[in-house]
């Protein structure tokens, strides 16, 4: 069973990965566009394929601790039924995606073997 830990702001830098599929693509695309329109954050490619350890289509948002208290509640409100992985960026990819990983929505099992 995966642990559903609520995001906590205790690191300097973060990524959020918004997961979606073909049926939720429109919602994800709307969130993606709203971030571009309303935030000064770095946003990654809108991947309609699995990338890295992520078992679903996704896009990435990079942000810092100064943005955390605004970004996380906003994402939680906008995501509806989408799952969002929020993790620290410490330089240790394995720990960032396990020990320092938090979830908005239902946690999913990541493909962690890429870190070995």
Automatic annotation (TrEMBL):
Question: Which Pfam families would you find in this protein's record?
Answer: DOPA_dioxygen (PF08883)
Annotated membrane-spanning segments are none
Top-rank lineage group of the source organism: Bacteria
Q: What is this protein called?
A: DOPA 4,5-dioxygenase
Protein species of origin: Pseudoalteromonas luteoviolacea DSM 6061
């Amino acid at each position: 069973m995966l642990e559903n830990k609520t995001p906590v702001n205790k690191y300097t830098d973060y990524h959020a990965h918004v997961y979606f599929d073909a049926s939720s693509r429109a919602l994800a695309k709307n969130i993606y566009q709203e971030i571009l329109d309303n935030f000064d954050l770095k946003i990654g490619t809108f991947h309609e394929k699995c990338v890295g350890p992520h078992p679903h289509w996704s896009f990435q948002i990079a942000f810092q601790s100064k943005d955390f208290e605004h970004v996380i509640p906003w994402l939680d409100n906008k995501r509806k039924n989408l799952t969002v992985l929020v993790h620290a960026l410490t330089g240790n990819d394995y720990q960032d995606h396990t020990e320092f990983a938090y979830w908005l929505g239902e946690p999913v099992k990541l493909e962690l073997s890429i870190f070995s």
